[in-house]
Amino acid sequence: MPLFSSPFAQLELIRHPEQPNEPLQAFDAADEYLLSHLAEQGLPAAARLLVLNDSFGALAASLAGRARVTSSGDSHLGYLGLTVNLARNRLAGDAVDFVPASETPQGPFDWVLIRVPKTLALLEEQLIRLHGQLAPGARVVAAAMVKHLPRAAGDLLERYIGPVQASLAVKKARLLFATPEKKAAPVSPYPTRYRLEQPSLELLNHANLFCREGLDIGTRALLPHLPKHLGRIRVADLGCGNGVLGIAYALGSPQAEMTLVDESYMAVQSARENWRAALGERPVSIRAGDGLAEQDADSLDLVLCNPPFHQQQVVGDFLAWRMFQQARAALVKGGELWIVGNRHLGYHAKLGRLFRGVEQVAATPKFVVLKATK
C-alpha cells in the first residue's frame, strides 16, 4: 500500500468504500502541495484549522494532533474514510472534529484548507458560511489538480473572501491563496426550488444536490412507472437525493413504511424538508448512510434507486454495483429492486448476476427502467 508522505506524517490511507485491487489512491499531489505549503508557513499547535472537502481524510489525518482540526464535507463516505484512516494509523478518533456540510463549522479559524469540490455550488455555500468564522490574519488556501480547477473557483474565492493569487503548478496541482478582506454579510442563493406537475410537488434543493435546478432525466423516466401498493410494504429510496422518488411513491402508497438514505448530508437535509412539506408528520426514516450497509437483512420489500455513476471526480459503476448488492441483501425473498439507468451501462446483465429475474419495465432512447426480483 502506498504511503502518503508529508512534512506532518507518513500515513497508510485507503479509499472508502475499499475495493479489491484498488487502482486509485486516497490522496493526490494537491494534498501534498497544500501540506507542504502549510509546513513552510508554520503551524502553531494552538492554531484552529478548518479542512473542507477532504476526500478520505488525507489532510485531516496528517494534521491530527498537530493543531485543532475541524473537517467538514458533504460526503458520508468521505467521513467514514476519515474515520477508517484515523484508526488505521492509530490516531485518536476525536483528534478531528467532523461537521457535515449541512451545518456550519464554528470558528474562529486561523487556517482554512479547501479541496475544490466537483460542484461549485457547494464551494460557494461553504465560502458564504465562512463569513464571521475567520480569525484576524486568517489564511485561506484552496487546492486542486489543474484539470479539476475551473476559473470560476478563483472567482468565488475573490467574491466571498478576498483577492486571489494562484501558485505555480507542481505535479499538475495548483494552490489558490485568498486574502480575507472585510465584506458585507453575503446572502446565499441556496437552497433552490423547482416544481413538478406530476405528482404536484415543489422540491427544495440544497447546494450540493445533483440536478439542483430541475428534475434529472433519469428520475423523470422512472417516475411514471413507480409501482403502487396499498398494504404496509417496507420501501427504501436508495441514493434518495432530494427525496423525489420516495415522496412520489409514498403519496401513492399511503401505508408504506419508508426509508430514504443518501451519502450526501445536503441531500438528506433536502429530503427531510421536502418530505415534511409534502407529507407533514407521516413517519419516515431519512438518514445519511453508506447505502443500505446498515439495513437489516431481509427487512425490505421494495428498493427504488437511480444509482450514481461517479464518486467525486471518478466515473465508474463501482458504487452502483455495491448498491445493487446491498439491495439484494436487504430485500426479502420475492422483494424487488426498481432502477433507472443509462442504456449503455448494461445494468440488465449486472442485475442478472444477483437476482433471479430481471425485466425491462420501460425505456426511452437514453434510459431503461428495470425491475429485479430476488
TrEMBL record:
Principal EC category: transferase
RlmG N-terminal domain segment(s): 1-181
EC id: 2.1.1.174
InterPro entries cross-referenced by the UniProt entry: DNA_methylase_N6_adenine_CS, RLMG, RlmG_N, RsmC/RlmG, SAM-dependent_MTases_sf, Small_mtfrase_dom
Stretch forming the signal peptide: none
Gene3D superfamilies in the cross-refs: Vaccinia Virus protein VP39
Highest taxon listed in the record's lineage: Bacteria
Catalytic activity: guanosine(1835) in 23S rRNA + S-adenosyl-L-methionine = N(2)-methylguanosine(1835) in 23S rRNA + S-adenosyl-L-homocysteine + H(+)
Location in or out of the cell: Cytoplasm
Gene Ontology molecular functions: 16S rRNA (guanine(1207)-N(2))-methyltransferase activity; 23S rRNA (guanine(1835)-N(2))-methyltransferase activity
UniProt keyword terms in alphabetical order: Cytoplasm, Methyltransferase, rRNA processing, S-adenosyl-L-methionine, Transferase
Ranges for domain Methyltransferase small: 201-371
Pfam families noted in UniProt: MTS, RLMG_N
Family to which the UniProt record says this protein belongs: Belongs to the methyltransferase superfamily. RlmG family.
Task performed by this protein: Specifically methylates the guanine in position 1835 (m2G1835) of 23S rRNA.
HAMAP family registered for this protein in UniProt: 23SrRNA_methyltr_G
Stored PANTHER family: RIBOSOMAL RNA LARGE SUBUNIT METHYLTRANSFERASE G (PTHR47816:SF5), RIBOSOMAL RNA SMALL SUBUNIT METHYLTRANSFERASE C (PTHR47816)
UniProt name for this protein: Ribosomal RNA large subunit methyltransferase G
Lineage: Bacteria, Pseudomonadati, Pseudomonadota, Gammaproteobacteria, Pseudomonadales
Gene: rlmG
